[in-house]
Write a structure and sequence with these properties.
The complex is a heterodimer of chains A (about 425) and B (about 325). Chain A folds into 3 domains: about 90 residues, RNA polymerase II/Efflux pump adaptor protein, barrel-sandwich hybrid domain (OB fold (Dihydrolipoamide Acetyltransferase, E2P)); about 35 residues, E3-binding domain (Dihydrolipoamide Transferase), CATH 4.10.320; about 210 residues, Chloramphenicol acetyltransferase-like domain (Chloramphenicol Acetyltransferase). Chain A contains 10 helices and 20 strands. In chain B, helix 3 packs parallel to helix 4. The radius of gyration of chain B is 19 Å and the shape is globular. Chain B has 11 helices and 14 strands. Chain B is α/β, with parallel strands linked by helices. The termini of chain B are far apart. In chain B, about 35% of the residues lie in helices and about 20% in strands. In chain B, strand 6, helix 6 and strand 7 form a beta-alpha-beta unit. Classes of the chains: A alpha+beta (about 425), B alpha/beta (about 325). At the A-B interface, helix 4 of A face loops of B.
């Protein structure tokens, strides 16, 4: 009976070996123990000895072939023997255990208490290899929704602990802030791992990933696809400030949090949005959605970018509640602990740079929303007022606001009327009671 | 709006359509003098006469054959199978004849009949008088299947079904007959193939059929107290199915649960689950699609066992909670 020559397994974790070259030729007579060929693993180069004396026949692999271990590579014939006329398969020649799996594959499977039954082998004759088992072991369990969100944000699921059954990752497990800017996210094409984050001559290379990349993509798309119109107004904030001072003076006594200017702005915007539904709108393909409630997003600056938590149904909330939610959301935003519900379904965005003494600026629309309001600082300025039917110069706390609107959805006059009402309600905050 | 029972709504639809269209007639076992096993056709034979409210011998095959033949000649028959269980005896006429003819005659003929089938358990009527066999008919091209859950829907759908040029299997749940709800007096139709969102919610979509719509709504009301907002979608017609409404709802909530009374294995819920999984809603699923259905066994006579054989409100509440809390 012919003696099979198989590719030996030289190391515990070895799956394959590369043929360097044959030392004997087809048909040559060899002695038992005589070197037949040289192979190379990722660690060593070694000669394979003949398992028997006889004639080397049926060589099946050539130099540079990568051959799985235990595969038949040739046979040694005794005098008078010949190879069967039909091609020899491994099954006919090699002794076989019950399970068609490499020893490493079996070990890894055992370590993970994994049954080999369900695993599809990609090795020779369907043998289960190390890679097959590892693919199953490392498979991330995640719901389709979690996968979609991860895909959209460029977040790697492997790093996220799942809270569902069997550790399945659910949509809510993906933190909104965290992950967006982490280094595990998709590498920027062309940036090699070595150069990432390291100084490269006169400049530091920072890959465009995570939150930065999301902002880059969204803002580019918005700036390129939405025709922006911008309108600027100024509001006399005397009354709003007086209201704030009055409410805050009593805040402690009635145990409500102190009111921020942003809270008043959110409330005023919601009030005006309810009266101008075309500003409280969003564009989805061929449809304009006019939203029934004012979900006002407020941009929050983070170290790695910015995020826009949303005050939902702001028109139904009191100033105290808005203020409390704002500070709670901002705090969680800074901790990277916002959930999808906190940042979705916004219908309008407010961006306030007043605290940096910016007098006025224009914002890029937050798609698919039709409008965004950029708010500048409140500063005392000279204004002309009417006193006793006479023009007079007065000093008033003034605030500039610039609305950017999507001209596909609404026109200048619509935006102007909205701003008119917004100024009106800020200058006469009693109107909020309507 | 005026309120009436599901049973009265069925009768009113039949009555109004027979007044409107002389081609419409009723045929079935005990539908005439006795007024129907559940009293649906009570008084109708006195008003319309035995020519239009026809009592038959106990032969479901005969009823199905008669309505098929009458429909072919231009009538608009409404047959009744006293218990849906006995559609078994009418299958040849329904599946091989009525469902096929329009296609096999190249569209030159129509088979405009309605076959009303009281179905479902809960009455202590045991294994041969309690089944929900809608899935059999959904599987046959050429048949439409309606399964209304409210008095409003049953009246509107029955009128639409009678006026439809195709055979319609019309499944009424016995326990619903006494349920009350608003429905206008004047005739109106509810289109076949249009689902309805019976309750809006953001956390979970329950697609339920027939009496399970009522139980799902009650479950949703209880869950709302825990802060779980369930959306209840009633397909109303199983075939044709309004996939759009279901897919939109699941895409919104990210979770889907299907509730029906019929046995789970091979039931209509499997079809609904597959429709959802194959649709664009797939990418929004944040939990496995769950089916809550009748046990795979004949309905027992014992009332306690019967109760536990099909989904009840507390079963829906419990399962919905598990899904929403990410425990499934």
């Amino acid at each position: 009976m012919p003696t099979p020559v198989i590719m030996p397994k030289l190391e515990m974790s070895q799956e394959t070996a590369t043929v360097v070259g044959w030392l004997k030729a087809e048909g040559e007579t060899v002695d038992k123990g005589e070197p037949l060929l040289t192979v190379e693993t990722d660690k060593v180069t070694i000669d394979i000895e003949s398992p028997a004396a006889g004639t080397l026949t049926g060589i099946r692999v050539q130099a540079d072939d990568v051959v799985p271990v235990t595969q038949l590579i040739a046979q040694i014939l005794q005098p008078g023997e010949s190879l069967p006329s039909h091609p020899v398969s491994d099954e006919e020649v090699l002794p076989r255990g019950k399970q068609k799996a490499t020893p490493v594959a079996q070990r890894i499977a055992a370590e993970h208490a994994l049954s080999l039954d369900g695993i599809k082998g990609t090795g020779i004759s369907g043998r289960i290899t190390k890679a097959d088992v590892e693919a199953v072991v490392s498979r991330v369990r995640a719901t389709p929704a979690a996968r979609r969100i991860a895909r959209e944000r460029g977040v790697k699921l492997e790093a996220i602990p799942g809270s569902g059954p069997l550790g399945r990752i659910q949509a809510a497990d993906i933190p909104v802030g965290a992950g967006l800017a982490n280094q595990n996210s998709r590498p920027h094409p062309g940036s090699s791992p070595e150069s990432r984050g390291e100084s490269d001559g006169d400049f530091e290379v920072v890959p465009l990933t995570g939150m930065r990349r999301t902002i880059a993509e969204r803002m580019t798309r918005s700036a390129q696809t939405a025709p922006h119109i911008t309108l600027t107004v100024e509001a006399d904030m005397s009354a709003a400030q007086a209201l704030r001072a009055e409410l805050n003076a009593r805040a402690k006594a009635v145990q409500v949090p102190r009111l921020s200017v942003t809270a008043i702005l959110v409330k005023a915007c919601a009030w005006a949005l309810m009266r101008h539904r075309w500003v409280n709108a969003s564009l989805h393909g061929d449809e304009i959605h006019l939203h029934r409630s004012a979900n006002v997003g407020v941009a929050v600056a983070l170290e790695e970018g910015l995020i826009v938590p949303v005050i939902h149904r702001a028109e139904t909330l009191g100033l105290g509640e808005i203020s409390a939610r704002l500070s709670e959301l901002a705090e969680r935003a800074l901790q990277g602990a916002l959930g999808p519900a906190d940042v979705s379904e916004g219908t309008f965005t407010l961006s306030n740079l007043g605290m940096y003494s910016i007098r006025q600026f224009t914002a890029i629309l937050n798609p698919p929303q039709a409008a965004i309001l950029a708010v500048g600082s409140i500063a005392k300025r000279q204004v002309v007022v009417e006193r006793d039917a006479q023009d007079a110069v007065a000093i008033r706390p003034m605030m500039n606001m610039t609305l950017s609107a999507d001209h596909r959805v609404l026109d200048g006059a619509v935006a102007a009327r909205f701003l008119q009402d917004l100024v009106d309600v800020l200058e006469h905050p009693n109107l909020l009671l309507w | 709006m005026r309120e009436l029972t599901y049973l009265e709504a069925v009768r009113e639809a039949l009555w109004q359509e027979m007044e409107r269209d002389e081609r419409v007639f009723i045929i079935g076992e005990d539908v005439g003098v006795y007024g129907g096993a559940f009293g649906v056709t009570r008084g109708m034979v006195d008003h319309f006469g035995p020519q239009r409210v026809i009592d038959t011998p106990i032969s479901e095959y005969g009823i199905a054959g008669a309505i098929t033949g009458a429909a072919l000649t231009g009538m608009r028959p409404v047959g009744e199978i006293m218990f849906m269980d006995f559609t078994t005896l009418a299958m040849e006429q329904l599946v091989n004849q009525a469902a096929k003819m329009r296609f096999m005659f190249g569209g030159t003929i129509e088979v405009p009949f309605v076959l009303r089938c009281p179905a479902g358990s809960g009455t202590g009527a045991a294994a041969q008088h309690s089944q929900s066999l809608e899935a059999w008919f959904v599987h046959v091209p050429g048949l439409k299947v309606a399964m209304p859950s409210t008095p409003y829907d049953v009246k509107g759908l029955l009128l639409a079904a009678i006026r439809d040029p195709n055979p319609v299997i019309f499944v009424e749940h016995k326990l619903l007959y006494k349920s009350k709800g608003p429905a206008p007096e004047e005739p109106y139709t509810v289109p076949l193939g249009k689902a309805e969102v019976k309750r809006a919610g953001r956390d979970l979509t329950i697609v339920a059929t027939s009496i399970m719509v009522v139980r799902a709504l009650e479950a949703a009301a209880q869950l709302a107290g825990e802060g779980i907002e369930v959306e209840v979608v009633d397909p109303r017609t199983l075939k044709p199915l309004d996939t759009e409404t279901i897919v939109a709802s699941v895409s919104k909530t990210g979770r889907a649960m299907i509730v029906h009374e019929a046995c789970k294995t091979g039931g209509y819920g499997a079809e609904l689950a597959a429709v959802i999984a194959e649709s664009e809603a797939f990418d929004y699923l944040d939990a496995p699609i769950v089916r809550l259905a009748g046990r795979d066994m004949p309905i027992p006579y014992n009332r306690t066992l019967e109760y536990h054989t099909v989904p009840q409100i507390e079963d829906i509440v419990g399962k919905a909670r598990e899904i929403v809390q990410g425990r499934i």
